[in-house]
Specification:
mainly alpha, about 110 residues
Amino acid sequence: MNGETHNFSQLNEQAKQVAVKNFTTFYVHLYRTKNLEIISDKVDNAILWDIDRRLYRDKFELTDEIIADSYKYSYKEYEKVLVSLGQKYFSNGNPEINWDEWYNKQYNAVGAGL
């Protein structure tokens, strides 16, 4: 893998699937810990509501099942989220920086509260 990175929309279909799968796992964990403020500040909330509605319906399933269902049924919404977040990806679909690190950078960039 070379060091060249791409926007989500520049990835081929297989790489997009990898990117969406990785992000779905990250997003479901954020959802389950009620920690979506950073994401919701950067993405149209109507898109997130569509994803979250399905996650809420599946809330009593095992985490792996929720991730698989969310990936399957909310794929198009996740694509929109990834375009909005502006993360860079390698040609295989892996993010330039892992999602936890990305989140921490975004969190640390928020100014101090009142």
